[in-house]
Design goal:
By secondary structure, the chain is an all-alpha fold. It has a single domain (6-83), classed as Aspartate/ornithine carbamoyltransferase (Rossmann fold, 3-Layer(aba) Sandwich). It has helices at 13-23, 64-83. It is flat and about 55 Å long. The termini are far apart. The relative contact order is 0.15.
Length: 88
């Protein structure tokens, strides 16, 4: 899951209108998860705007907070490798 990015639209009155029209269309609603398989996992790059309501957070499908936490660890490891830090 990701959001429609405002910065991808032209900085014109028409561009703002297009963004508003499109961004409100792509919203994950909790009711859509009613018949989802138990193995479904929802990932999202965060931060969210309006495409991912907070009510999804506690569904058991949401793993985007773990995703963000793991991303920090991965970035630390990559920086350590690039900078030549030795773990001893």
């Amino acid at each position: 899951m990701t959001r429609v990015q405002r910065e991808r639209f032209p900085n014109t009155p028409d561009g703002a209108y297009d963004y508003e029209k499109i961004s409100s269309y792509y919203v994950l609603k909790k009711e859509l998860l009613k018949n989802a398989k138990s193995s479904l996992r929802i990932m999202h790059p965060l931060p969210r705007v309006n495409e991912l309501p907070k009510e999804i957070d506690d569904t058991g499908f949401a793993i985007y907070f773990d995703q963000a936490k793991n991303g920090v660890t991965v970035r630390k490891a990559l920086l350590s490798l690039v900078l030549g830090v030795k773990n001893e």
